[in-house]
# Entry
Amino acid sequence: MAATLRDVARLAGVSFRTVSNVVNGYQYVSDATRAKVEAAIAQLGYQPNYSARSLRLGRSNLLGLAVPTLSIGYFGELASEIIDVARNRGYTVLTEQTNSSRERELDAVQGARRQMTDGLLINPLALTSDDATIFETERPVVLLGENVFSHKVDHVTMQNVAATQAGTEYLIGLGHRRIAFIGLADPEGASVGTSVLRTEGYRQGLAAQGIEHDPRLELSAGSWAYEDGVSAVRSLLSAGVGFDAVFAATDVLAMGALHELQASGLDVPRDVSVLGFDDLVEGRYTTPTLSTVDGGRRQIADIAVDMLLSRIESPTSPVAFREVAFSLIERKSTRSRL
Amino acid sequence: MAATLRDVARLAGVSFRTVSNVVNGYQYVSDATRAKVEAAIAQLGYQPNYSARSLRLGRSNLLGLAVPTLSIGYFGELASEIIDVARNRGYTVLTEQTNSSRERELDAVQGARRQMTDGLLINPLALTSDDATIFETERPVVLLGENVFSHKVDHVTMQNVAATQAGTEYLIGLGHRRIAFIGLADPEGASVGTSVLRTEGYRQGLAAQGIEHDPRLELSAGSWAYEDGVSAVRSLLSAGVGFDAVFAATDVLAMGALHELQASGLDVPRDVSVLGFDDLVEGRYTTPTLSTVDGGRRQIADIAVDMLLSRIESPTSPVAFREVAFSLIERKSTRSRL
DNA sequence: GTGAAAGCGCTAACAC
DNA sequence: GTGTTAGCGCTTTCAC
# Structure
């Protein structure tokens, strides 16, 4: 059995209150006592029992993180960044994968596990604004992404419309006029809110440059996997719709699209430009390297953790909403300016 | 404040012992009482306090997982699979990123967080067999990978030597004779044990087919990032060493290599075949698609969780060691058989 | 079938 | 500066 405070106290010949003081870095402990206690701690290999501490304090220093899956693209990198930021702030992260299922997302928000953590970071894809009320409890939560809107919950998102519009206008600036967009909301698919906004940004970009929008150029994102990028391009090609650029709503879709374009004998960017969204590392190593819109993922990780910890510390402070900055990253999958 | 067992008992008009019985599905509770209690639970939205339960039970239903990073390749997919398997077994995973640093790996094994979990899954890269003793405590731990060997700790690994040898012989079977290998142990780099074994497999593969091994064809894996694949190819090319195939110790290295070969104007697989190791999803969408050795990652996730839970349940059962099966996945980055 | 009571290991309010 | 004590919410003997 592991050593307890009492064991340490006994060995050091002090009261166990004193040991607690030492462990918690309390101020008024004589150097001699401290030394004795520390020696005893080292000798017994004492480590505090977190369950007991949590029970007493009502805080666990655990944060919940609920994302669709760690295995692919955006969410893996986001989780990685969030875990690092949380660690630097003294928190450990308990990761759940919702697989974009409504049931699992509800469970993350309302389920029993919620009890173990001091707060939750969730990027809901299946839940929508209709479910907003379930977030309106006193338990700290920060929403990532834009599927759920509520002026009663802390929220951090990308500027999806503006960023996608900028991407679209960038392609137009390159001389493209027939720009296909992969990322349409699919009722069966995930990420509905994001789809809607990025689709809107795409259309606004066209409109801003006076280009007629052609519904045949707007493709579903399916479940946002590589394969969906493949099938979008395939259907575009088989429908015989002319296009000179592809703007995909995520880098993963873009890489699927790039793959299929090349498999069909097209040259990127000579025949078709490809633009992604997310700035995943992988995009730096495709051939050609992938031009992309960086929606601001790294900043989201920072801000989200920060927001959540603020909320934990002051539950009554005003609800926060933050949008992060985006930027365009030009690599080789889009053609040079004419 | 959240409702407690006592609150529920008061509302239901029973003793709080009875409520506990209902919550834990105890057998002898009359249907009427059960119904009353359940109604009270629902009305108050009662959820058990896990800290209290853990304190009492001495178990948290939390598992620790320590991997270098979630953001890239193998470990992101592995973590994803492990979290799913653990969830199906009723456990939640607390993820830590060690960034392959010795200090962080030690912290994962010995640090305070260890106390919060019922067991630890760790894939050490910086720790070595010299550190084996730190694992030999009574706390459940399962080692993934092969940096640390000890007959006193549960362990699950790939058949690295055999798998790499098979990959090498596959390339030879394709007609290749000048096969470069990227993945040499770099004292500064990570994954030393894996490097050594995969290097050994490569050399054995050559030897088995009577091919002389040329040290100039063996390249360092650096820190196992995409960029290290790039630099390996770059140094190969600038040294003017002839080669007709590249076998990279991971898919990420292989994708970096593929990228650089193409950037240098070489055609894969016409001029050079490229073979990876790991079977990451991304490899299905490169151009050309990436041939690879599947070391058995999915099986590792299953077995590791299973081993750890067995160990938690019976701390004194014999130490287990398992090697998983590998397979070769032929795609388009290796040339067709002559 | 249900109730009372002990105690898991810790922190903090209160004495001294 | 250090010691005593209550109690966080729960599970689990032990009675009844």
